[in-house]
Amino acid sequence: MIETHRPGLSIVCQCGLLGLNRSSVYYRPAPENPFNLVLMRLIDEAFLECPFYGSRQMVRHLRRQGHEVGRKRVSRLMGKMGLSPIYQKPKTTVPHPEHKIYPYLLRDLVIDRPNQTWCADITYLPMRRGFLYLVAIMDWHSRKVLSWRLSNTMHADFCVEALEEALARYGKPDIFNTDQGSQFTGGEFTGVLKDAKVKISMDGRGRWMDNVFIERLWRSVKYECVYLHAFETGSELRRGLAKWISFYNTRRPHSVFAGRTPDRCDRAPWLGVTGVPRG
Fold it and tell me: Strand 199-202 vs strand 175-178: parallel, antiparallel, or unpaired?
């Protein structure tokens, strides 16, 4: 909103009209230092193995590896990565106090066809010189990745874009399930689902098992793609992910589906969510 080279209207005047502090116009966020990026990579790897680790346990883990770090730093980095341990938290801790939390609709529900239930989640992806966030939309029945987006912030925009692409390409599900992150509870995201007349479901707090299939996807994408290649830049990461997700959807067999790929299962509605033939 600030035009730095506007004749006749100085930056001071523009800031005054907008009620902004002039220093905020010149502020440029500093990237994480190399040591913190190393710590974030180690934290991410440990969290995949032990998703119940909070900052205290993570500090102990890092110190066992020879890194003398404090809990305050580890807590800040885990927050920046969007990592939260899976134990139940107090009810007073809410993702956003003004956002509505919807009930979990999938308990004991038999999911036996494509487009019955979709889910979404966000994960942190390390690179050699930084990191990005990945959101993916998945069909719960087939485990197919319907759309995905990368972002350098945790704002809701890239989640909404991924959702709109999935709806445009594959129609709409009966139910859409997410965690209680503010990107998914906000009006921008839920408004798209309401307009499409999709039922909204949200995990219980700290219940990572409520969205277990996309958690398994994160493990696969990191161990089979991100950690192996250690991408230098965002464009390299984007190309690598596009290649891997295409492989995952069309050529990577799933043992739970008797060796079928997500694309094949997407066309086989007689398979239940566990991959066991029905009838």
Answer: parallel
pLDDT, tens digit, for every residue of 162-172?
A: 999 999 999 99
Place of tokens 């523009």: 14
Residue 178, SS3? strand
Topology (CATH) of 117-266: Nucleotidyltransferase; domain 5 (3.30.420)
Phi, psi torsion values for 265, nearest 5 degrees: -70, -25
Contact in structure between 40 and 77 (CB atoms under 8 Å): yes
The phi and psi torsions of 169 (rounded to 5 degrees) equal -90, -30
Burial of 152 (0-12, 13-18, 19+ CB in 10 A): exposed
Question: Comparing C-alpha atoms, which of 78, 60, 81 is closest to residue 69?
Answer: 60
Per-residue pLDDT reduced to its tens digit, 42-69: 999 998 888 888 899 999 999 999 999 9
Q: Which residues pair with 134 in a beta bridge?
A: 123, 150
26 vs 131: CA distance, rounded Å: 24
Q: How far apart are CA 62 and CA 42, in angstroms?
A: 8
- Two tokens, residue 178: 């997410």
Burial class of residue 130 in the structure, from the number of CB atoms within 10 Å of its CB (0-12 exposed, 13-18 middle, 19+ buried): middle
Annotate 4-47 with DSSP letters as a single string: TT-TTS-HHHHHHHHT--HHHHH--PPPPPHHHHHHHHHHHHHH
Q: Do 213 and 139 form a contact (C-beta atoms < 8 A)?
A: no
